[in-house]
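As a representative case, the lines below give one protein's residues and fold tokens.
***
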Amino acid sequence: MMAEPMDIAIDWDRCMGSGNCLFWAPKTFDLSDDGHAVVLDPAATDEDRLRVAAEGCPVGAITLSRDGVAVVLGEGKA
């Protein structure tokens, strides 16, 4: 049984448009015309790469969650 895709939230007040998320998960993230990260398709990238993308955000603007519970980053799978 496949797990539901993670929910991905971008804090636009923190996002600086570095593009790290787009590098790690190009099918899930893109940059808007004003330079903020946007989520295209949460299910398009495997969970491990989504974690790397979130952990690699230099300003911590990406939050991952599943079923309303935040996914803990940097400690393996929650």
Remarks:
- The radius of gyration is 12 Å.
